[in-house]
Amino acid sequence: MMTNPGNRLTQGQFSFLPDLTDAQITAQIKYALSHGWAIGVEYTDDPHPRNTFWEMYGMPMFDLKDPAGILMEINACRKTFPDHYVRVTAFDSTQGWETPRMSYIVNRPKKEPGFGLVRQEVDGRRIRYTIHSYATDKPETERY
Amino acid sequence: MSAREEPEDVPGAAFGEDAPVDLEAEFQDSRVQEVLDKLDRELIGLLPVKTRIREIAALLLVDRLRKRFALTAGTPTLHMSFTGNPGTGKTTVALRMAEILHRLGYVREGHLIAVTRDDLVGQYIGHTAPKTREVIKKAMGGVLFIDEAYYLYKPENERDYGQESIEILLQVMENNRDDLVVILAGYKDKMERFFLSNPGMRSRIAHHVDFPDYSPAELMAIGKLMLAEQNYRFSPEGERAFAEYIPLRMKLGHFANARSIRNALDRARLRQANRLFALKPKRLTKRDLMTLEAEDVTASRVFREGRADADEIPAG
Hints:
heterodimer; B: 15 helices
């Protein structure tokens, strides 16, 4: 049974929707900026859900007023890593939160092979399950 | 937000050539007059500058109307250069300009980021580009004000990183015209030379505004406005003394127009406080606290020795 046709990675916000257009991304960034959150652009080619720390593309951006600068950075990252996952993270530094408040994918590889289920037999016939990204069988930079 | 954008109607396609235009209503609607009035009220003199800004505002307003009739293509180039001596109000006018552009909808946020060479140019290879980009990102949606812009280009050092910064700026000035407006400021002759050696920069700047020096009468008016802002005033004798002070100070070196007047007033306030303290009058009135007397002004070294007060001569 195919549970996720197309094997689209579903992480973060809006990931079950069609890809966001630039206008929609701009609107989301505007929302984050209006709350004073710092925005970072990150990329990775290891889509495992437990891989939470992606590589940062440049520094996180503080004290911006307008989304245009961030969109410029997103496009630069897309150009450098056209076949990587790229996400935008909005970090809230106010006390009590101190955590990303928004995170959504803005670029994905053309072909996403998806995940396979791996069964590991351990003592007493017990089975341990884990998921494994087919893409990570290949070395870094050759995955997509 | 819908995933698909509605197909936009071509605005004005339904109007004929004789469709009426309400310029007045549009003008009221943009509330630009408020900013222009504020400019008139708060800035003394500078008539050519005010005229120029009025012209630019009118041009943008008409452009906005034309857009409604689908008559224009693309945003007009709004990058400017402000030339003039120090203290002639370039930064203040740039702030107002940002506000005007914001009201007319040519910049989205209307904030002003004021930078100099230090904020744009790095100290080692690979440092300049991220630094310049950082500043540009901050200025997006507003106005980037580059003070003493000619320092960006140092012809005597061909490996100077300023050139890299200029190239990034040029690229952004061309590609992100909708996103930010760049205003370059500096002394007239040095800016001329800067533009001569950077023709790309010159061709991307549509408006060259020259700031004239102030006359003594204008400086007096500026001084009084500054005092009024801080709830001070001159006594009649004090005003006469200050009117005498201004031409004397203008003849000396390092005269920075309104900035020198501000410094002179700051020192006069200092002397006034000292005088009140030394006098120890039994009954001090509110008027005493507010009034600058002639002696507060005439104690300046400009009168006694014919040179500027020590704290006004810049080091180096």
